[in-house]
DNA sequence: CTAGGGTTAG
């Protein structure tokens, strides 16, 4: 501390024309390192004055921002203000630091603040590089905000900040994930090889190719994906790797071409690339979807013999497949197998089990799994809560429904529209209109607009007690007061209700209305109408409607045949 | 910046 005091003493005695930026930087550094934050900021403030003779430089920003974030000396807001003051002197924070700061803002869903910082720095023409922009771009990409991404890239171009390989990677990836593969290919061709002022070139790399191949596969354009692989092999620094082949394998699996997928495994081996656990999981998943569990298990065991061990994802895939064919015992068997194999379950394994059990309506088993999940130190997420609430509603277990809701609240989780829709339909089925209204109100209070499903549940409830006037009122409200429009399901509910009451005229005019409004009728629409005709034995109208059904390309089903 | 895992209500 003595040394610090001496340094400060010396500094204070200096003539003000001796206190240049370099000297001040040293003093600020010493003060901050010794925790004398207020003193440091006093010196900094002198530098940041508008007409300061010795303004801050790159090093000032380096020292201050590094220490500030290391010691958490300032709030995010104050750091932003500080950056802005540096910016007004034409000083940028160090690129690495700025990138980290932008990322952390984005993680806290403060992309707007990040945007403002970068705009401010650009406006003041401070020197900038691509990485901080990449951080913001990848955040915008996660939110699929492509238009703001394009804006940012344009702004970069205006102030001559050159994009790098990562920038290109982010753009391609976001476009591919939004299924806009052609645009991704276009951006790729446009940006790659582009020479900038300083002679640098953005070179295409394996990640770019992998992303594009995956994008093409995900939209089923397998032939083009294969062509891109050929092109990739001809490029300089682009060697296909396990990711490349796994993307192709996934593409074939999704298309149900399991044999071709297995051929790609052979091709990758010939190419000197070992299949990995992702390869196994992809094919196991594909087999489960298209050829059933047994084939998948055989494949899995073959691969284990080749030395590729399964992981949580492998077991989860198998567990899910068991559940989807209602084989809970087998699901639990694979759960045990997973533990034996030394794979520690993560939260998602439990969610998958819960999802499977909810689908086959095994409420007691689901409760057991929830207990196991909690024992494992995990908690349910909104999705899992929704599935469970749905299950307990279905089982008329109001007590459990309330338990789930209080649990959610305890964990600070807000119900979403799916939760509300589930509850509204539950109360509707019990003809508890008071609760229905209460839920609708609460939903609005939570800032959630009613969805088509919400209306569907309520309209259905009023129809079920024969209050068609009330149902029609809501139906009309839909178009008027909210942005949701009636869909096929809503029309079917009403047509069914009128048909049941023998009001064929009203039912028929609703069907006409839906055709006029371009809402497609389906088999159920016609079946609902037939229900009414059958009683009145109006054969002629029936035949006419049958013809119309064909016209509308509605496949008649079992129920239709009964008329 | 690239590959594989659970999504509800009518």
Automatic annotation (TrEMBL):
**InterPro entries, sorted:** PPR_rpt
A single Pfam family it belongs to is PPR_1
Residue ranges the record marks as coiled coil? none
Q: Where is the signal peptide?
A: none
- GO CC annotations? chloroplast
Q: Which PROSITE patterns match?
A: PPR
> Which parts are the PPR repeats?
20-54, 164-194, 205-240, 241-275, 276-310, 311-345, 346-380, 381-415, 416-450, 451-486, 487-521, 522-556
* UniProt keywords, alphabetically: Repeat
Instruction: Report the domain of life of the source organism.
Output: Eukaryota
Record bears the keyword Oxidoreductase: no
Question: Which GO biological process entries does UniProt record here?
Answer: chloroplast-nucleus signaling pathway; mitochondria-nucleus signaling pathway
Per the record, the similarity remark reads: Belongs to the PPR family. P subfamily.
UniProt-recorded name of the protein:
Pentatricopeptide repeat
Specify the species.
Answer: Arabidopsis suecica
């Amino acid at each position: 501390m003595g040394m610090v005091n001496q340094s400060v003493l010396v500094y204070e005695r200096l003539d003000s024309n001796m206190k240049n930026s370099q000297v001040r930087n040293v003093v600020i550094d010493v003060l901050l390192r010794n925790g004398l934050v207020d003193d440091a900021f006093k010196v900094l403030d002198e530098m940041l004055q508008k007409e300061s003779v010795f303004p801050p430089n790159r090093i000032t920003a380096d020292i201050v921002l590094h220490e500030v974030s290391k010691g958490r000396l300032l709030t995010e807001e104050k750091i932003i203000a500080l950056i802005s003051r540096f910016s007004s002197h034409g000083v940028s924070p160090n690129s690495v630091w700025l990138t980290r700061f932008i990322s952390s803002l984005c993680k806290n869903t403060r992309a707007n603040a990040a945007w403002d910082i970068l705009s401010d720095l650009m406006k003041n023409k401070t020197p900038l590089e691509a990485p901080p922009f990449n951080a913001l771009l990848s955040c915008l990409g996660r939110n699929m905000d492509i238009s703001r991404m394009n804006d940012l890239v344009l702004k970069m171009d205006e102030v001559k900040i050159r994009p790098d390989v990562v920038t290109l990677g982010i753009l391609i990836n976001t476009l591919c994930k939004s299924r806009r593969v052609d645009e991704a290919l276009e951006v790729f061709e446009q940006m790659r090889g582009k020479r900038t002022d300083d002679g640098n070139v953005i070179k295409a790399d394996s990640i770019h190719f992998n992303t594009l191949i995956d994008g093409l596969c995900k939209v089923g354009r397998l032939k083009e994906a294969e062509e891109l692989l050929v092109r990739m092999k001809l490029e300089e620094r682009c060697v296909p790797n396990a990711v490349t082949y796994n993307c192709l394998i996934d593409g074939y699996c999704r298309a149900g071409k399991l044999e071709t997928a297995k051929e790609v495994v052979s091709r990758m081996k010939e190419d000197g690339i070992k299949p990995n656990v992702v390869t196994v999981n992809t094919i196991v998943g594909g087999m489960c979807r298209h050829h059933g569990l047994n084939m998948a298990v055989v494949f899995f065991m073959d691969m284990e013999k080749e030395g590729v061990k399964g992981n949580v994802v492998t077991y989860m895939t198998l567990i899910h497949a068991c559940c989807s064919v209602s084989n809970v015992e087998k699901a639990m068997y694979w759960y045990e197998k997973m533990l034996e194999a030394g794979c520690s379950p993560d939260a998602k394994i439990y969610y998958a089990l819960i999802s499977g059990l909810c689908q086959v309506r095994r409420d007691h088993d689901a409760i057991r799994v929830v207990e196991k999940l909690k024992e494992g130190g995990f908690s349910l997420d909104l999705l899992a809560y929704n599935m469970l609430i749905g299950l307990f509603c279905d089982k008329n277990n109001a007590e459990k429904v309330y338990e789930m809701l209080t649990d959610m609240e305890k964990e600070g989780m807000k119900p979403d529209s799916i939760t509300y829709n589930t509850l509204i339909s539950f109360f509707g089925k019990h003809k508890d209109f008071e609760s229905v209204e209460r839920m609708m109100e609460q939903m609005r209070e939570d800032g959630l607009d009613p969805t088509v499903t919400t209306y569907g549940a309520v309209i259905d409830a009023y129809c079920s007690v024969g209050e068609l006037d009330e149902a029609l009122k809501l139906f009309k409200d839909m178009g008027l007061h909210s942005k949701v429009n009636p869909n096929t399901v809503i029309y079917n509910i009403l047509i069914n209700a009128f048909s049941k009451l023998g009001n064929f005229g009203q039912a028929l005019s609703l069907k006409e209305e839906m055709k006029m409004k371009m809402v497609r009728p389906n088999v159920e629409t016609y079946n609902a109408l037939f229900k009414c005709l059958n009683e009145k034995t109006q054969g002629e109208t029936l035949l006419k409607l049958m013809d119309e059904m064909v016209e509308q390309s509605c496949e008649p089903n079992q129920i239709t045949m009964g008329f």
